Amino acid sequence: MRRPVTAITRQVSASINNCELSFHARQPIDVAKAMAQHKAYEDCLAGLGVRIVSLPAEPELPDAVFVEDPAVVVDEVAVISIMGAPSRRPEASSLAEALSHYRPIKFLVEPATLDGGDVLRAGRFIFVGLSQRTNQEGIAQSSDMFRVYDYQVQSVEVRGCLHLKSACSYIGHDTVLVNRSLIDAERFRGFELVDVPDEEPAAANALLVQDVVIIPASFPKTRALLEQRGFRVQTIDLSELQKAEAGVTCTSIIFNHGATAVEDRGV
């Protein structure tokens, strides 16, 4: 029997065109279309049986829709981060309040920086990316917090992309979808690795919900590859949000509702 799953999301801010960008050239974002795509994303999750907790937009915080980054949630605790981009740090307070209804809360302290997009969980394994947004102190503090609950924590250096989960994602069945040019894939020894097609280098960000792998519709070769390997795949259009360096994991925090222990390697 599947456990109830909850996703915290946040509505798109009208100011999203002022978002932080590190690796993409700035392009105009159609705000109304971005809002519609975000609603379709929430509907996709709801259609898979996920309970949606939607927070209101933060008008003055253009990146606030990307709720993955201010917090990392495992079954035992929610860790509230200090994000690498100072402009984004005010996003954390309302998210901590929302998460306090579901988990005990712990906070990183300066000089740590960490973005949730740099944290990849696969059951009792947690991989934390060393990136432009996450520093060594962020890795050290978060690792100490996770190890209390018997997680095995491994750091992974990230190069040429925003976050660890820009370069790899856990997709179930002991398998990681990966772009090896962006990380040291040897860190994932013991997992089966599926390489994204060369034509779709940004396709490594995927979201596992129950037994379905969600990817952007802009990566048809990756979808075909995964389906050939027996994965159930669902695609969504994120074209406007992708202009803000988004992937499918960025706009939700998904966790087992009321869980006290990890029993599988997916959400």
List keywords for this structure.
24% strand; single chain; globular; alpha/beta; three-stranded mixed beta sheet; 267 residues; disordered C terminus; 15 strands; L-arginine/glycine Amidinotransferase, Chain A
- How would a textbook summarize the main sheet? 3 strands, mixed
Number of domains: 1
- The gross shape turns out to be globular
Under CATH, the homologous superfamily reads: L-arginine/glycine Amidinotransferase, Chain A
Characterization of this structure:
By secondary structure, the protein is an alpha/beta fold. The protein has a single domain, classed as L-arginine/glycine Amidinotransferase, Chain A, CATH 3.75.10. The protein is built from six helices and 15 strands. The strands form five sheets. It has a three-stranded mixed β-sheet with strand order 2-1-15, with helices on both faces. It has a three-stranded mixed β-sheet with strand order 3-4-5, covered by helices on one side. It starts with a strand and ends in an 11-residue tail after the last strand. Residues 260-267 have low confidence and may be disordered.
